[in-house]
Amino acid sequence: MNTLFTFIAASTTFITVTASAQVILFNGTTVTQKLPVEIFLTEGPIWDIDIPGRTLTAVGQVIQIPASINGVPFTLEGTEKLSPNGATLGSITVADFDRLSDINAIGRDLVNASAGADAGPYRLGPVRSLFSTSEARSNVVGALDRSPATQRVIEDNYFRILINLFNVHQSVLSAEFLGRCGVRTAQGQYPTNPFQLPPRTYWKYPHSTGGTLKSAGTIYVDAAGNEYRIPHDGCVIELAENVTAGKVRSVQKGSDLTPISFVVNETIVTLNQDPRIETKILGIAGAEVDPTVLAASLQVGDEVVVVGYLVGEHMMFGIEIDAPTLYVESMGIIVSADRFTARVDTGLLRWRGQFYPPAGKTLWVQLAGSKKPLAVPFVVDPANGIGTYDMRLDGIDLEVVTALDMVVRDATTGAELHRQHFDFTDSIAP
What we know:
By secondary structure, the chain is mostly beta strands. It has a domain at 332-429: Immunoglobulins (Immunoglobulin-like, Sandwich). It has helices at 102-105, 133-136, 148-169, 177-180, 291-297, and strands at 23-24, 30-33, 39-50, 55-58, 61-64, 68-69, 72-73, 111-114, 121-123, 212-221, 227-230, 235-238, 242-252, 261-264, 267-271, 280-282, 288-289, 303-311, 315-322, 334-335, 338-343, 348-356, 361-367, 374-375, 379-380, 387-393, 403-410, 416-423, 428-429. Strands 1, 2, 3, 4, 5, 6, 7, 10, 11 and 12 form a 10-stranded antiparallel sheet that branches. Strands 20, 21, 22, 25, 26 and 29 form a 6-stranded mixed sheet that branches. A 5-stranded mixed barrel has the order 13-14-15-19-18. A hairpin with a 5-residue loop joins strand 10 and strand 11. The two termini are 27 Å apart.
């Protein structure tokens, strides 16, 4: 999962932008970095979202989300906007900050359109508030964005999805599964008959802390001396970062009312249903695929790694699903290149990757600015047929070369079949 940045204890190694960086707020106010530089970090539950003021509060700090930094629109990482037909519109910015509101997430921003054949709807709505359960159930105090009625919809959404998915996977799940997930009797016991559930009044929605705000940056000031915490080194929103891995025990394709789902260990996994949170599915050789590929290709016995957020301990909503066997022919040739090591002082350039399908093909690399491609040796895993390579070059002028193309050719004719560009600028070290 892309955690976006690693949090470091406050030290002199913390990266900051220069005082000349132009930071503009949503109302057009220009702010400049306070001197001497004062850093801040957050990683904790969200306490408040001020929609008009474009701020997020966590760990006792109010984080001001800027409109732009050096002319580049600022985005909230980990978030996503979808059109009514499911097309991604990028990440949330100050221009559409109200998409963070629980109230809009349960209504206006839902995407009930189908994600494709057998994939089910794109987003049925949130099953967790961005606030803690106790806070989300509270009445509005002052200007805090709380709505018990909205929280009730969120909780009902969780139970509706849970029960629908349990019904199609119950052959591999314990008879106590619904009870463990919060469905209880008037006496607080687990129901004994999944076809005759007790009244909703007695069910216990699993409590959780608020969504996590990860941010890092420095304090800025406006002309009047007002201070703002500007997260120029990153700002991430995530409901949680829970992880499960193992073999798939049961798979169920999506329908008009339910998303695709599967069981790993004793946990039901489905795709994230919150319209504010990004979702990613990775298939063979790390290729990003859409939900229809997951529906068409995932099989019982496949190994998966899922990063997402739990409600309770047994119902998981995946925000990144890594299933390395996912592939359909329409995907064509897949090539990856990652884990770059690039050192200017020694000219060392090293990277690794995979490609598929490798049969009858050769692999090459062409450095930016070079006309001569270099052969890339690879080995094929007999278990899954994926080609894997580990490439190292020395004496490269990494002040000039900052990108490369991976090229796949026909082994017989030499004809180019596929080319993919990779920029490794961020991996270059002095």
